[in-house]
Design brief:
Archaeosine Trna-guanine Transglycosylase, Chain: A, domain 4, 818 residues, rod-shaped, binds adenosine-5'-diphosphate, Methane Monooxygenase Hydroxylase, Chain G, domain 1, 31 helices
Amino acid sequence: MSKHDLYDFNQAFPIINEDTEFFPLFSQQDEEDMTNESIPEILPILPLRNTVLFPGVVIPITVGRNKSIKLIKEAYKGNKTIGVVAQRETAVEDPLFDDLFKVGTIAVIIKMLQMPDGNTTVILQGKQRVHLVEEVQNEPYLKARINRFEEKDKPKGKEFNALIASIKELAMQIIQLSPNIPSETGIAIKNIESTSFLINFISSNMNTDLIKKQELLETVNLQDRARIVLEQLTVEVQLLELKNQIQNKVKIDLDKQQRDYFLNQQLKTIQEELGGNSPDLEIEELRKRGKSKKWSKEVNEHFNKELDKLARINPVAADYSVQANYLELLLDLPWREFTKDNFDLKHAVRILEKEHYGLEKVKKRIIEYLAVLKLKKDMKAPILCLVGPPGVGKTSLGKSIAKALGRKYVRMALGGVRDEAEIRGHRKTYIGAMPGRIVQSIKKAKSSNPVFVLDEIDKVGNDYKGDPSSALLEVLDPEQNNAFYDHYVELDYDLSNVMFIATANSLSNIQPALLDRMEIIEVNGYTIEEKIEIAKKHLLPKQREQHGLTSKDISLKGPVIEKVIESYTRESGVRGLEKKIGSLVRGVATHIVMEDPVGPSLTMKDVEDILGAPIYDKDAYENNHVAGVVTGLAWTQVGGDILFIESSLSPGKGKLTLTGNLGDVMKESAGIAMAYIRAHAQDFGIDYKLFDKWDVHIHVPAGATPKDGPSAGITMLTALVSAFTQRKVRERLAMTGEITLRGKVLPVGGIKEKILAAKRANVRDIILSKSNEKDIKEIKESYINDLHFHYVTEMSEVIDYALLKEKVKKPIDFSMGA
Ligand code: ADP
């Protein structure tokens, strides 16, 4: 046999063993063929350990036992016919006659093969069943006398046919359900015509034990055998179906797991290929960063717990990035990471002086504050609150304090904060949750003890989403802020080393509870002189530097700066001025680049060329040619301002009309003034009948700007008296004060702003309540030395001073109207 044949053979019979049955081949010859042949009396008997050979069926058998090899070799040389019988006990190595079943099969050796592993394989074909009668010899191998096994008549009839059809059907089902049986077997079964061979073939292949198979071999009647086979097949089909069901279920479960695992593995690979960190790496990285933090044990435990949580989340799930962001925040936050304070007060003074002009009182107070801080070494001093109009340097003072102390600086604008969550954060479970602004700012500062400016604390609103002021209270309260709880961070954060500085435009809008915790430092507006100095010493150098120019390229003389201030700005601070100076510097830069140089010292004309025509000029005292028009002083968010109260009379029925976008308080002032004049008409020399015959109209320009407050009281009254008497108002006079029905003049606020505005407007005399005298004393002498103050307590004093005896040029002829 060629090597090639051997190969082919092995393909067909991959597993061949004496003890293991395999798919038998078809018989070339039917069982019946031999029935009538004479059978030999004595046959060599080959014991089979595990198999029953059925007539007609071909099986390969590996022969291992010495006795058996001898037997096969001799028989193969002779007539190739042997008897094969199953042994009762598989384990018996050298079976004697009595160890064998007594019904066996005559077999023909079709082929004998020497296998490469040294074993001998024979291919046997069963021929006919026989009885073993007695042992003839035991050595060198077993021989026995045999007897014909009588077959009964072949069964026929419907029942038998139905049996065979059922068997075929079940056999087909089994083949389908068992993936190990080649599908060709099905075709073979369909094509088997001989019913007895069909039964034998299936008996041989059936998945039953040896005893059952032997029982089948010993069953005489074909119909009985068919019945047994059918029973066995039915049981097997049921078993197989059940097995498949279980397997399918297990397989589906496994499949999903495998699929997920496979996809995750792929995802990891893709992420690595893309250069991004795989989730594992990312988690490792976070853990490493966590180890280098100086945070407390409690925070450390929390961090590790949250990190373990992250490790359990599927990296493609949305939760993953939420959790990762959270851990990043914990790592980015400074925990007990302090910068070292520089308490050299001389250094601090130098910085404050260098960066801010004027503001002596404010600077002094700041230095005191730092001195206390140095001695006390904790921040339980009240929080500083700088109050004043915009652009006076409140925020930049905060910055200078940070610089002086060598601390980090952060600023948080509170304007428009209405929701408590903006301060305190959202719980992590909300979609898009974020930490509050306090924590975000601390993160930005990268230190646990920055100078923290809470800008515009008076602009904090509140609405249905909770009150941000109460959260701020906790932030600012030295007793509570060592454990500030942010909903997002879920841990207490110690704010007690932060130096808070608040700023506000006006005190009236600050929550009383907040106000309680702060020490107020007023930063007032600047006079023109101060502004000129600030512009020269700070704003111009700053702008020059920002635009890459030097003093050789642009300089501004005092009067030019004054023009810029008067014609192009209207403010208490210097923010607008800084912008205008910036425009000038840019204008000069453009000229230089276009090789059309101006300056370096700019003239008034250069200023107009660059900034355009003057914007403001109305802010000046006008004349006193008309009766009923008086100059008042007002306080606005941007500082002080002058305003005109205009009143006019027209024949009518004594109606009072008010226009100019006035608030309730201001309207009431007008009512009080009217009532006072009516009551004291005689004192002022007014015919009381006039009140019923003339309509009064009071207007306050500019009509589009809302105005309110009681401080225009004396101005309105003066205007009305002037209108009804047609007396001239003193020139270059302005006034501010509240009135009562009894004719008292009460003090009002914002005096410094108002006085500075009056000065700007070229006013000379100012009437104020006596109680406001102390406010004037606080203003630097040099700013107000050309102003004259007239302090009053009674309305009559106001009229006496404000109105001249002389009438206006074209007075109303009251007799005409009546
Ligand atoms: P505020 O916070 O009061 O609204 P800022 O601090 O923003 O005002 O000041 C506006 C600009 O004016 C800043 O550039 C600041 O440097 C400058 N400035 C204000 N006051 C002074 C001053 N006294 N000396 C120098 N520069 C000043």
